[in-house]
Amino acid sequence: LSRIRRTEPSVRSFIHVADSEAVREAEELDRRIASEGKDALGPLAGVLVGVKDNLCTANMPSTGGSRILEGYRPAYDATAVRRLREAGAIVVGKTNLDEFGMGSTTEGSAFQVTTNPWDESRVPGGSSGGSASAVSARQCVVSLGSDTGGSVRQPASFCGVVGLKPTYGRVSRFGLMAYASSLDVVGCFGSSVSDTATILSVVAGHDKMDSTSSSQNVPDYASELVSLDSLESKPLNGLRIGIIQETLGEGVDSGVATSIKAATLHLEQLGSVVEEVSLPSFSLGLPAYYILASSEASSNLSRYDGIRYGRQVSADDLNELYGESRSNGLGHEVKMRILMGTYALSAGYYDAYYKRAQQVRTLVKKSFEDALKRFDILVSPAAPSAAYKIGEKINDPLAMYAGDIMTVNVNLAGLPALVVPCGFVEGGSAGLPVGLQMIGSPFSEVTCVIADI
Ligand code: GLN
């Protein structure tokens, strides 16, 4: 907590720091150690976690980064949070995000701008920027985020930490504020693959409160890690790795491309077989994603009607109530997405936009399936550039959307992907981190986490 107090004025990772609750829970753990012994405690006893503020936490503010939920304190924990707590983890605070997860820099929060711990003039990425910066600045050990189109992986890359987007359905979405339900997943951040794998094993698994959660067995992911200490022992022997050709060409920062190539060379030295692979529908994913995500958001966000949750407004009739609560409670980007989504779903435009985007989604899925028959893992950068300056893209939404090119396809296909730091480019005083994305087949998180690089 003292580290949070010291670093928070410049990093601003948290919308809410749970000081008194965290101290109370830690004291309770101490009491249990005294009476029952250490072994009686859960596997994560005392581990401090940060939780993205679009995940519900009982009796703690949960705003989704939006004014419309100011003052909202849910009565229950999201399933992923409940499972962490049952394992003994302590929620140390709620982390900042772009409003309802819509954005790539965390500048879209209604409350504050989070900075990148590597260079405070730069963005931490987004939308889970607060969860990434909190781990990067060592304000907590691990954190939870959500990933609809890259919101765990891109901030992990910008902040130099590990970020894992599980397979769609691997982790329950119960208690996660819905953005685009067919794409949303709860993901994990840590400062090592091993930490990240450990919390995945705790939060994953079927949940009767989310019918899309999978009942597939949950492995002990961390126990699958191999040691990469020695190049001679070739620990990745036989692993087939495909570099996605379309992700290293035009529009990608040359320093990023160099780091990724160096990382793949390293993977080759460790025994894997590395080849290039082309995914022809790769570039179609971005426009399809923005149509589908906005369409689903326009429907999901209709629940914020000024009556059920959060901020109360007074109004004389229903129109005024909606007008007052939504006009003042929702931010510009969110309104823009609701408008885009409503438009794409409207009679007369549905076939041209929504239906077309669904067809592209099928194509994207198919091209990943084909490539993953030949390769165990596909790799790419997590983002076309390292962290950029605060304010640089805020007035140019298309440029910001274009930065999601590396990640959105993975959500369209529902696949798992892990981002690990793999190098640096020039910038800031110490260089800026670059992240390598490793994409696997559905439920192959074990293969993705195997190498703690
Ligand atoms: N940047 C993307 C968007 O704005 C992805 C966000 C996310 O994964 N939540 O939609």
UniProtKB/TrEMBL annotation:
Keywords: ATP-binding, Chloroplast, Ligase, Mitochondrion, Nucleotide-binding, Plastid, Protein biosynthesis. It is an enzyme of class 6 (ligase). PROSITE patterns: AMIDASES (PS00571). GO terms for cellular component: chloroplast stroma; glutamyl-tRNA(Gln) amidotransferase complex; mitochondrion. It is found in: Mitochondrion; Plastid, Chloroplast stroma. Pfam families: Amidase. GO terms for biological process: glutaminyl-tRNAGln biosynthesis via transamidation; mitochondrial translation. The active site is at K52, S127, S151. It catalyses: L-glutamyl-tRNA(Gln) + L-glutamine + ATP + H2O = L-glutaminyl-tRNA(Gln) + L-glutamate + ADP + phosphate + H(+). Its main location: mitochondrion. One of its GO terms (molecular function) is ATP binding. Its EC number is 6.3.5.7. SUPFAM superfamilies: Amidase signature (AS) enzymes. Residues 1-448 form the Amidase domain. Subunit of the heterotrimeric GatCAB amidotransferase (AdT) complex, composed of A, B and C subunits. Belongs to the amidase family. GatA subfamily. This protein may be expected to contain an N-terminal transit peptide but none has been predicted. Allows the formation of correctly charged Gln-tRNA(Gln) through the transamidation of misacylated Glu-tRNA(Gln) in chloroplasts and mitochondria. The reaction takes place in the presence of glutamine and ATP through an activated gamma-phospho-Glu-tRNA(Gln). NCBIfam families: gatA. This is Glutamyl-tRNA(Gln) amidotransferase subunit A, chloroplastic/mitochondrial. The lineage of its organism: Eukaryota, Viridiplantae, Streptophyta, Embryophyta, Tracheophyta.
